[in-house]
Specification:
With 395 residues, the protein is α/β, with parallel strands linked by helices. It has helices spanning 12-15, 23-26, 45-50, 63-75, 87-96, 113-125, 167-176, 189-192, 227-239, 246-256, 259-278, 297-303, 320-328, 376-394, and strands at 80-84, 104-108, 129-133, 149-155, 180-184, 202-206, 220-224, 283-287, 310-315, 333-334, 344-349, 365-370.
């Protein structure tokens, strides 16, 4: 089989099945196996002195790790990529590598809560100050940039409330001021939002979610647009001793091959469920940018190629006990934090408890819903029964 895994003219669905494959490593097998090892032996002093990276020491990653990094960089048209042990570690390493004491950073108010916690604890202790900006600020972010602003951190759609940010406008303003743009691109993925093409400098993903896809491995990645930025962040990554199990990298490569078909199914199911929910009398609003008429839909349609299965659901006021009655009896929706697998999930979230401002009105109930790969009609029936329990408990 003759193949060019770096053929940028091929469609994503084709590229995702081929990137990162190397016959020299797989020896004809379809998938590169997990190369386990820490120590690399050398026959001569000259060979040892010439060695670098994974050819010198397992901590720098095995051929399995390098294959996944190469695949993810190729899919985002990046200079290169760095694996980390989790999505949060990818965020924290990217931030730490991009700031110094005395710096100021801008972070979207709709950011993933653990990212916010990191800014308020570790970065604050290091002398880095954080300003949280309204996620819909767009080009207006130029008014918040300070002479010492080194980073603008974005996440689109926003965590829990799913605001779609104008990433190209934010990147243009940040770069004009000399700031680096980081983005948590886990929801969009390399398939649905090519962040680096929109101007983002470091595209960050929790591979734990859609790339692994089976809820059985923790993994993150930082993809750099520019080679000089990659080298600087990679140097910091290495100095911190960050390592990733080749077994987890193998699971990431395995999941990557079916990413496009799974995301298509997630979106199809999520749209069916979201459309049904929109018509329910207990529902105030569905926060799913791919849904026509939903908040952020026009910007999503302009910049995104597709959607995932994760969205927000705002219910009319109900007590915590009524919400618990709804959730405790779900049959097909589990309650869990890490979405992106084949299973459907639902959680009661309270963005007002950690946000400066939120589109969820006081008293309303906000649920985070992940539509997995189950049949949408089974999920709709489960939600219908759950909402009936909520109504009965509230009566």
């Amino acid at each position: 089989m003759s193949e060019d895994p770096t053929d940028s003219k091929a469609q994503f669905e084709t590229r995702v099945t081929r990137v990162g494959r190397d016959e020299a490593l797989s020896q004809g097998l379809v998938s590169i196996p997990p190369y386990r090892g820490s120590t690399v032996l050398f026959n001569t002093v000259a060979d040892l002195q010439k060695a670098s990276g994974h050819r010198a020491y397992g901590r720098w990653g095995t051929p399995t790790n390098r294959a996944l990094e190469a695949a993810l960089a190729d899919l985002e048209d990046g200079a290169n990529a760095m694996l980390t042990p989790s999505g949060l570690s990818a965020i924290t390493i990217a931030l730490l590598a991009s700031v110094k004491p005395g710096d100021h950073i801008l972070v979207t108010d709709s950011v993933y809560p653990p990212t916010r916690s990191f800014c308020e604890t570790v970065l604050k202790a290091l002398g880095v100050t954080t300003t949280y900006y309204p996620p819909l600020i767009g080009a207006g972010i130029q008014d918040l940039l300070q002479p010492n602003t080194s980073v603008v951190f974005t996440e689109s759609p926003g965590s829990g409330t799913f605001e779609v940010q104008d990433i190209p406008a934010i990147c243009a303003a940040a770069h004009a001021a000399g700031a680096r743009v980081l983005m948590d691109n886990t929801w969009g993925t390399a398939l649905n939002f090519p962040a680096l093409r929109h101007g983002v400098d470091l595209s960050i993903h929790s591979l734990t979610k859609y790339v692994v896809g089976h809820s059985d491995a923790l993994l993150g990645v930082i993809v750099a647009r520019d080679r000089d930025v990659y080298r600087q962040v990679r140097g910091f990554h290495g100095a911190m001793g960050i390592t990733v199990s080749p077994d987890d990298a193998f699971l990431g490569l395995r999941g990557l091959r079916t990413l496009s078909v799974r995301l298509r199914q997630h979106q199809e199911g999520a749209l069916a469920v979201a459309q049904w929910l929109r018509e329910h009398p207990l529902v105030r609003e569905v926060l799913y940018p791919a849904l026509p008429g939903a908040p952020g839909h026009d910007l999503w349609k302009r910049d995104f190629k597709g959607a995932s299965g994760l969205f927000g659901l705002v219910l009319k006021p109900a007590s915590d006990a009524a919400v618990a009655a709804m959730l405790d009896g779900m049959r097909h929706f589990g309650m869990g934090f890490s979405w992106g697998g084949f299973e459907s999930l639902i959680l009661h979230v309270k963005p007002a408890s950690y946000r400066i401002s939120t589109p969820v009105a006081e008293g309303d109930v906000c649920l985070r819903v992940h539509v997995g790969l189950e049949h949408p009609q089974d999920l709709i029936a489960d939600l219908d029964a759950g909402l009936s329990r909520l109504a009965t408990h509230a009566a």
